[in-house]
Design goal:
The chain is mainly α. It is about 90% helix and about 0% strand. It is elongated, with a radius of gyration of 19 Å.
């Protein structure tokens, strides 16, 4: 019975990896659509978001089977319940990638103010998503805690982008529309990082039995 349970846990790990990879792809496609003006990339981001939704349902069903059929012990129960929380955050990450892609489709500008900082912000957010899922699969407490700390990096990029866009608008009102759109995109990336942080916190809980927010 335990062997079967362990195999299903391995399946859970594999499915989580796939869902995490889809989140990374969705964000990357959406940002490539912005920077390269490639609307095919925007469509691919939307397609990835649909796959994320389906994967969430698949993992949710697998978790329910583990809970109802296998009667997990305390440590396994924490792991499965954490996975259920994590896929909810990953689904929201997919939603934010969709938000970015849909916004890009209606943008009309060849110049992207703050492109470098937005790219760095996106790279940092994607890295957090990758590491958060890896920390779950590898049961790596240090990596999960690093994800939580790395949220500060994305927050600093967001503040930088926001402040600089405000200055641009003040100098040239004609750039107001593009700057507001970019500020929204930066906010979506900041929310992606927040969800990755949530995932890291649930990984900490799955390993230690204590949620970081409850420790503060």
């Amino acid at each position: 019975m335990r062997n079967r349970f362990d195999r299903q846990l391995e399946e859970l790990n594999s499915e989580m990896i796939v869902m995490g990879a889809l989140c990374e792809e969705a964000i990357t496609y959406a940002m490539n659509a912005l920077f390269k003006g490639d609307m095919d990339m925007a469509k691919r981001a939307l397609e990835a978001e649909e796959q994320i939704d389906r994967k969430e349902r698949d993992i949710e069903n697998l978790c329910m089977k583990l809970l109802l059929q296998q009667h997990p012990v305390a440590g396994d129960l924490r792991l499965i319940s954490s996975a259920l929380k994590m896929i909810s955050d990953m689904e929201r990450i997919g939603d934010h990638a969709e938000d970015i892609a849909e916004l890009v489709e209606y943008m009309d500008s060849e110049e992207i103010p703050q492109e470098e900082n937005l790219q760095r912000m996106a790279d940092a957010a994607v890295s957090m998503v990758t590491h958060s899922v890896d920390s779950f699969v590898k049961k790596d407490l240090a990596l999960a805690k690093k994800v939580i700390v790395d949220d500060n990096i994305v927050d600093r990029y967001f503040d930088k982008v926001k402040d600089d866009l405000i200055v641009i608008i003040a100098d040239d009102a004609k750039k107001g529309r593009i700057c507001v759109d970019l500020l929204m995109i930066a906010k979506y990336l900041e929310r992606v990082a927040d969800h990755a942080t949530n995932i890291g916190e649930w990984v900490v809980y799955s390993i230690t039995g204590e949620h970081p927010k409850e420790e503060n």
